[in-house]
Amino acid sequence: MATDGENRVNASMATPLGNSGGRRDAELPEFLQLHGGDNPGMVLVSTPFDGTDFLAWRRSIVIALRAKMKLGFIDGRYTMPDITSDAYDTWIRVDSMVTSWILNATTKKISKGFLYTKSSRQLWLDLEERYGENNGPLVYQLRRFIVSITQDTLGIVEYFNNLTTLWDELECLRPPKTGDSGKGVALHTRWNENRNGNISRGNTQTTVRGNYKGKGVIDKKSQFCSHCGRTGHMKETCFKLNGVPDWYKDLKDQKRRERGLAKGFNVITGEGGGSSDHTLQFGETVKQMTELIRLMKDNIPQQDLLQVNFAHGDDFAGISHQRSCPHTPQQNGIVERKHKHLLNIARSLLHQASLPRKFWADCILTAAHLINRLASHLLQWKTPYEILYQKPPTLTHLRTFGCLCYATNVLPHKDKFDPRASKCVLIGYSSVHKGYELDHLGNHTFFTSRDVQFHETIFPFTSTPTTNRTFLPASIPDTDVCPFPESPQNQSLPTTSPYSLSYSCSSSATFSKTALPAGKKPIGSRWVYKVKLRQDGSIDRYKAWLVAKGYNQIEGVDFFDSFSPVAKTVTVRLFIAIATTYQWSILQLDVNNAFLHGHLDEEVYMVPPEGYTKADAGLVCRLKRSLYGLKQASRQWNIKFTSKLEAFGFKQSSHDHCLFTMRTDSYFLVLIVYVDDVLLTEDAKPAATPLPAGVKLDASSGSVLASPDRYRRLIGRLLYLGFSRPDISFPVQQLSQFIQHPREPHWDAAIHLVRYLKGTSSLGLFFGADSPLTLSAFSDSNWASCLDTRRSVTGYCIFLGGSLVSWKTKKQATVSRSSAEAEYRSMASTVCELLWISYILSDFGIPVSSPIPFHCDNKAAIHITENPVFHERTKHLDIDCHIICDRFKYDFILPHHVSTHQQIADLFTKALPAPQFTRLVSKLGMSSHAPT
């Protein structure tokens, strides 16, 4: 029964469009009316048609157009009226709207081929002709899918959904039922029988179909035997005439077994009954299945999810199999985390050795082999191997994965002059033999061998040699002044590179044009270009700055104060150690054109830069904001930055002016302002120590360097590198004393240090997550070690838990008359550093546990600390004595004596032999990590 709306539509369609006369739009048929939300850009379907699955897309378009009363435009029911009709323009407008909707539902590649169709009906017919198929092939293909689909390992619901989808697609293509003849009803009944028969056959249909596949259709009823008078066979194959063959006996036995197997079939139905049953084959007896289901009932909640019906009538509750969502491995929990652990290690092994992807399985096995032999804190620092076998594993057989190795050639019939070893690659450890899994580089065969010689620094699959390699970028001039013509608008600039010129000056109101006042002198400017590099040494981008010639500024006229605070590296290391322990998130922020944000208080005038076409003759630029090169640039930027942070609620630390904190009830924010730099080195042979053991430099030995600038630039970069490398603190301190007049021995020592860095480029500080936040200190001195002044060298290092946060090597200000005096002055410097660190920790909200362990290898200095007797020997140490004794009195420090061999601070005061140096460096908490 049609609704009222449908009756109105049918009535409208029955009315000829040519007789509409002068009706208003409200009187037009509903299919010619457009609503406010209808527009040519509307998308009717969620997935545009891309040339595949036309049937499903066609169904979606039909549903959408039927909902909008526009389906008649594409199926031919709404024909175009006469051109003289008043409804002609309206019909064209609505038909064009339908055409645009259909084109929007296709991809751009397809819509381009149908842009010039005259109507939506023609567009629809063209699409069906090009992408549609006749019903016959589609019906045949769908019926093949329905017949061939089996349940296999699918669940009942999923299996039924797959069948329902195929049935619905087939339903769209089946012929309609007719009332004039019984043929349509009979055909519809036959289709339903096919549907019910498919699911009742279940899995057995696949087997039957496979047995007769390719044999053709044989009607046995038409065959008649003239010898025995029976149907179903011919005389040539009659058993009474030819005898019963052996294959027939085997076939009868097979059918007998199948009938017995069919009795073991069990039917699983849903709780609601349903119209069909799904047969599942169980290879066990009913008694075994009964016991299995009983165990399942004892271990699951008493909730009937499925009914399992057996032949004897017993019902058992099943179990619910809940799957994880697609593409959400996080739901796998602990298993997924272990998979991630395995993959991370395997990926590292694969890329570190540059192995092809085909070795992924060997990487997984090797990763599992290593994990089982690594201690874990979850196992009380025992290995899984030890937990399983109750004995510690042997690690002497471990070698570098993917390295070059030579295995003994054990092939028979070899010539006397054949190689005695085969060139191979280590790809793992055998699980069934006591040997190594190797890949032969000649014929790429895999074998296991025990007699192997390894070269663990050579990786055959690496395109570049890895021996003594470094991850530091190649040495190129970091700043090139005007590598191109002065004007940045010059056409010779590289057009293929992102050359970012500093035109932000004018856009940010950095300067304004004005006449030069009397008595004022403008400073110059120039363009400075720099090539920005990536970590691998490749060019990232070209950058240019407009730099003011600040060296022409006069103090008191052009500027007054130029000091700008910079975050202390100790603060940064303390922050990293605390953040690692508390699992804080660390984000790095880089302020682009930082100096351009500072406002100038003084009047500074600058000559217009090259290429600035807006400058009139006789005018100069008055700087309103800072420029690179100005004396006060960093200070003005820091003032602006600090005021903004305080406006946001940050509090500036009184102990480090570049440390800002914000504490609320829900979060704690820490912000540190710092400056970074890089070190560039050349190719060199690595050295074992930063300086040769026992070397002492002076200011008079050797000849003076002809070009001292190169030495000064190198020392400047080494000073920055020393912020993260405590192992080079002493050599950098020694070399920096001779910047004014460097000599050949100083240059040789600096090159020796660079060679050491070449071999240890991956060495860095390690901050452990399980480190306790307690302070400890080591202090040492080298008495009268300076050959020129005979002053002593102070060295100390301070740990926060197991993380090294502060260290220093410094020449003492005065000459010490004894080693005890030198040690005592070194202890005073260490105590002052401990006091300052305790204040910073209080800013972070970390309490300091007292007393702090204080290690020194001089018993006389410790005795003076604990017994401050001011006699002739110590009266000149009055101030230092008061500092240390007061801290000892208030339980801030607790001195401990440590032997010289265990004194970690010893490497901050002298050049040590390689074995002792390596042992002490390992105690600093430094580890090797090759960048990726």
UniProtKB/TrEMBL annotation:
Positions of the Integrase catalytic domain: 295-392
Pfam families: Retrotran_gag_3, RVT_2, SH3_retrovirus
Matching PROSITE patterns: INTEGRASE, ZF_CCHC
GO biological process: DNA integration
Tagged with keyword Hydrolase: no
GO MF term (any one): nucleic acid binding
Keywords: Metal-binding, Zinc, Zinc-finger
Top-level taxon of origin: Eukaryota
Domain CCHC-type: 225-238
Start and end residues of each stretch annotated as Disordered: 1-23
Gene3D superfamilies: Ribonuclease H-like superfamily/Ribonuclease H (3.30.420.10)
Database matches in PANTHER family: GAG-POL-RELATED RETROTRANSPOSON, REVERSE TRANSCRIPTASE TY1_COPIA-TYPE DOMAIN-CONTAINING PROTEIN
Designated name of the protein: Retrovirus-related Pol polyprotein from transposon RE1
Species of origin: Sesamum latifolium
Lineage: Eukaryota, Viridiplantae, Streptophyta, Embryophyta, Tracheophyta
